[in-house]
Amino acid sequence: MGSIGSNLQEVRQRIARACAESGRDANSVTLLAVSKTFPAEAVREAFAAGACAFGENYVQEALAKIDALADLRARLAWHLIGPLQSNKTRPVAEAFDWVHTVDRLKIAERLAAQRPADLPPLDICLQVNVCGEDSKSGVAPGELPALAAAVSALPHERLRLRGLMAIPEPTADLQAQRRQHHRLRDLFDALRANGLPLDTLSMGMSADLEAAVAEGSTLVRVGSAIFGSRG
Ligand SMILES: *Cc1c(COP(=O)(O)O)cnc(C)c1O
Predict the structure, then answer these.
(1) Closest residue (by CA) to atom 12 of ligand 1?
(2) Domains defined for the chain, CATH in brackets
(3) Which of these, 10, 14, 26, lies nearest to 218 by C-alpha position?
(4) Closest ligand 1 atom to Cα of 36
(5) Where are the beta strands (DSSP E) in the chain?
(6) What is the residue-averaged pLDDT of the chain?
(7) pLDDT for 152-198, tens place per residue?
């Protein structure tokens, strides 16, 4: 692995190549740098190299980092991409810009109620279980339309439903990766066809971002390819 700066540049080149191969504008894909388990100083280094959106999985760890990087707060966005329990929604509503892992109406209701009125609306994605395993979090595809309708009826000045997110089964097979991403893309297109103004398809990580971009991802969540292995 190189430095965080050179890794970031390589990831940006991978995204640009993948976009070019599918005839997409390289600016149509947002890079979310996943900084979980890495210290605040690594985030600072990535920020200095041009990253401005960071993904975290664990609420306590993220809050400590957000605090340590308070001087940068206005210039970067914090995204929660890990599971969210209902007893943790308040600090998340108060400290984050995005939550990608909403999979129940109750969580969305609490986030909307707890989002401070002086902040912009919290942007959220619904997490979908695209591989149908019981152990995984995420709403089942069949229950997605009802959940999306209920969430989008919550007060828009507190909560904005922006799109969908999934964590597919890891596989090295590019075609299998694409099939899983394609499933999420189909669900996204169906909700949009029904009139929901979604603009964010959060899919693709270090190992499968090319497949995700080919299937229409607008936001890739990349950790190890930027910060190194989490050991
Ligand atoms: C850790 C994590 C990532 C980043 O994974 P890498 O393989 O390190 O790129 C992306 N999304 C979610 C939900 C994660 O938990």
Answers:
(1) 81
(2) 4-227 (3.20.20.10)
(3) 26
(4) 1
(5) 30-34, 53-56, 77-80, 98-102, 122-127, 159-165, 200-202, 219-222
(6) 96
(7) 999 999 999 999 999 998 999 999 999 999 999 999 999 999 999 99
Q: Is 37 in the pocket of ligand 1 (CB under 6 A)?
A: no
Q: pLDDT of 53-91, one tens digit each?
A: 999 999 999 999 999 999 999 999 999 999 999 999 999
Predicted confidence (pLDDT) per residue in 6-38, tens digit: 999 999 999 999 999 999 999 999 999 999 999
| CA-based nearest residue to 109, from 58, 164, 159, 166 | 159
pLDDT digits (tens, 9 = 90+) for 117-142: 999 999 999 999 998 766 568 999 99
* Angle CA 122–146–89, to nearest 5: 30
Cβ(32) – ligand 1 distance below 6 Å = no
Cβ atoms of 55 and 33 closer than 8 Å: yes
Count Cα neighbours of 175 within 13 Å in the Cβ-side half-sphere. 0
